[in-house]
Amino acid sequence: MLCGIDEAGRGPIAGPLVVAGAILLENIEGLNDSKVLTEKKREKLFEEIIEKSKYHIVFSDAKMIDEKGISYCLKNSILEIMEKLKEFSNEFLMDGNTSFGITTLQHKIKADATIKEVSAASILAKVSRDRFMDDISSLYPNYDFHKHKGYGTKAHIEAIKKFGKSDIHRISFKLKALGEVEIGIQKSLF
């Protein structure tokens, strides 16, 4: 059985990276790339995926992203998923253009829109991350995380200008809008 893998939260400036793996045990209608589905549809499918699959979801917080780098976090999350789900699958497919040096991981661009297991993983990752950002929003009332989920929207940038970065902001992500420039060293993928 195929295990699809996808991530949510690679690009935001705050909050976690979330990577999910899903092995479908039953057919699920309406699966697609999470980004093209409405929030209501994603939420409904999320519950169905939980019921009809073997899955594993991994969170990497902003501190780990800053310390180890986004590629390291992605690779480690994928390896954890592969380890947790190996008794149910020996075939793993990641959405995107790289296998992160993992020889037993296949990859395909736009797999989240064309391979149902990867679509399911895409939905698990996005809904899990969105729920997390909604849940913590009240702890950080100055930033309205429930509205932009940590992405670099104009309102979010303005909040950072006014209040500074919080402990869930990714310090290593430099923002041109704040006059920040990348001067750090590149984190190794391996």
From TrEMBL:
GO terms for molecular function: manganese ion binding; RNA binding; RNA-DNA hybrid ribonuclease activity. Its EC number is 3.1.26.4. It holds the Pfam family RNase_HII. Gene3D superfamilies: Ribonuclease H-like superfamily/Ribonuclease H. It comes from the Bacteria. The keyword Metal-binding applies. One of its GO terms (biological process) is DNA replication, removal of RNA primer. A divalent metal cation binds at residues 6-7, 95. It catalyses: Endonucleolytic cleavage to 5'-phosphomonoester. One of its GO terms (cellular component) is ribonuclease H2 complex. Residues 1-185 form the RNase H type-2 domain. PROSITE patterns: RNASE_H_2. It is found in: Cytoplasm. Its main location: cytoplasm. It is an enzyme of class 3 (hydrolase). Its cofactor is Mg(2+); Mn(2+). Manganese or magnesium. Binds 1 divalent metal ion per monomer in the absence of substrate. May bind a second metal ion after substrate binding. Signal peptide: none annotated. Keywords: Cytoplasm, Endonuclease, Hydrolase, Manganese, Metal-binding, Nuclease. PANTHER family: RIBONUCLEASE H2 SUBUNIT A (PTHR10954), RIBONUCLEASE HII (PTHR10954:SF18). Belongs to the RNase HII family. Endonuclease that specifically degrades the RNA of RNA-DNA hybrids. HAMAP family: RNase_HII_B. This is Ribonuclease HII. It comes from Arcobacter defluvii. The gene is rnhB.
